[in-house]
Amino acid sequence: MARTRQDNRRGPRQPLIHETTTPLPEPSPASRVPSVLRFPLVAIISLATSLALRSVSSPFSEGDLSGVSTQRDDWIEIAGFLGWKILDLALTVLPAWDTGALTFLAHLPYYYLLTLCYNIRPTTVLNSIAIDVLAAALPFYLLRQMSAPNNSQAPKEAVANRPVIKDRGVRFSTSLAATGVYSVVLYSSVKTWLPLFLITRFEGLRDLEGLHNAQFVTVIVGCVMNGIAAQIFIFTPSMGSKPDTRDARNAAFNPATATFGETVAWNLWGHSKRTRTLIKRTWAVILASFGHTVLQTWLVVEGAEVTGAAGWAAIWAVAAVLTGTVFWWVGDVEGISN
Residue 161 half-sphere exposure, CB side, CA atoms within 13 Å? Predict the structure, then answer.
């Protein structure tokens, strides 16, 4: 009986802390590296990875790319190209999965041109773009955690619309939609204005047979990975974005009491976090793909004019705009959290 009275005085048993709290995420490796050293370390790892992989693969692709490359003697042009490479890496301060997808979207137009008009073997192109993606993504894989929307192990409360973005059917259909957009834009250009445009702005095109004989099915096959990368980089992060404080301010906006500047700001950027993320990432693809394609094509491909490089890059920029629009339309349905 005394034992029972003692238990009653203690009251009901309290749950242990680990039963009611969510474990804290593991700190990222970058948190243990001084901030001043992070970007130099990223650059060193990226450069070392690229050099090592290209050295290993050079026996299988030797001479393919050098045959279309021009020799640059102007130090201003060389410095500008190297500066763009460093800036390209600096701007891609994203988790590895996102960095790899953006790198693929930015680099594919250049390699697609080499396959289409310069008879560069598809195996050489696949090898080169794989090295580019790995060299860009590996440093961030080692130094940064994966973003929550692309991380299946992320806490449920960290990601919005988890059932949607993790659904295989949704991922397949959105990747297919992006593939279709890029394929239609590219194929319609190839069959209309592009051949004449390239002939007049690219000296020494090896063969236009690839342009004239292009079939829609082969174009689709060439754009499949591009569609998957667009789904990873644009659709999933935007759908997984949680509302933030700006959403609360937008909801509290009162046009009757707002100033003119506040009204303009609300009309331009008073979107939900999902839409703002989608717009920013679509613009990132546009700028990265256009800028990289113009500089890489103009400075590397022999006989390429800057207007020709810009025209080719514009095709992919337009496709990115349309892909972002399709993703916005897909996500703008009832039942989707904004």
Answer: 26
